[in-house]
Design brief:
Elements (H helix, E strand, L loop, with lengths): L2 E4 L2 E4 L8 H13 L23 H5 L9 H12 L3 H18 L1
């Protein structure tokens, strides 16, 4: 087995794996009839882009998150991607109005 130097550590190549296509072809009907069990999806994270935690709109509006989840970044997303930030402006105005009404 050939060995090579990688930095200061010695590393060895993994052993060769011999695969017989004939044995794989013979096992094909058995694997089609009874495929291996699928593990529960909740145990492992997938490679899809999924946030680790839930982000509530109220938390963004309250300024509880840092960029790229801040209110300013959300506003820029609505302006340049969705091209409609009017609903956000209305919600912010309504929150200020309710707060001012509660103070009086």
């Amino acid at each position: 087995m050939a060995s090579f130097k990688f930095g200061s550590k010695r590393a060895r190549r993994p052993p060769a794996y011999e695969c017989s296509w004939l044995a794989s072809l013979r096992a094909l009907p058995r694997r089609i009839i009874s495929p291996p069990a699928v593990e529960d999806r909740r145990k492992h994270r997938s490679c899809k882009i999924v946030p680790i935690f839930r982000v509530a709109l109220d938390d963004i509006l309250d300024g509880k998150h840092l960029p790229p989840l801040s209110l300013k970044d959300f506003e820029e997303y609505l302006l340049f991607e969705e091209r409609s930030a009017e609903n956000l402006y209305f919600i912010l105005w309504l929150r200020e109005y309710v707060a001012a009404l509660a103070r009086n």
